[in-house]
Amino acid sequence: MTSNGGYTIIEGLPTPQVYHDLRKLAGMTPPPLEAVPKALENSFVGILAYETKDMLDELTPSPDQIPVAMGRLLGDKSLFLLLCDVAVHPHHQRRGLGKRIMQALVNYVDANAPQAYVSLVAEPAAQKLYPQYGFKDVQPSIGMYRMLRDRKIEGEVVNEGSSGGAA
């Protein structure tokens, strides 16, 4: 797809282990590894960033090369999409990779699902990135989620399956 600044951005999905590890290294909640293969199978598109110097050619990473950044879209491929998993390895942050991954994802939506409502949940550290690509706060709506497994929030683990009381 694109190559500059020492990195090449291409369409593709990481292996389940790389997906898990890159999320963890980027400070995001790592998913249960056993659920990752099915999740990746159901992607609309994945975007990966590799160090150009290690690639076999402009579109082919070397067999043992690991992506240093990723992003993913999932959904019904037409009307509703979820942008997720924009993650950059800490050793490669602050080099524009998050922006390049986002631009590739937005370009993909514009070309393949231009009528789609694309939603996302932004980690606090990335909330300034997304408006640059046309994302807006959902107000007056509010964001909600449901998850039975544990979720890490600002360094502590919260058990999502327990309830603190009646609603």
TrEMBL record:
- From what superkingdom does this record's organism come? Eukaryota
- What organism is the protein native to? Macroventuria anomochaeta
Q: What is the lineage of its organism?
A: Eukaryota, Fungi, Dikarya, Ascomycota, Pezizomycotina
Q: What is this protein called?
A: Uncharacterized protein
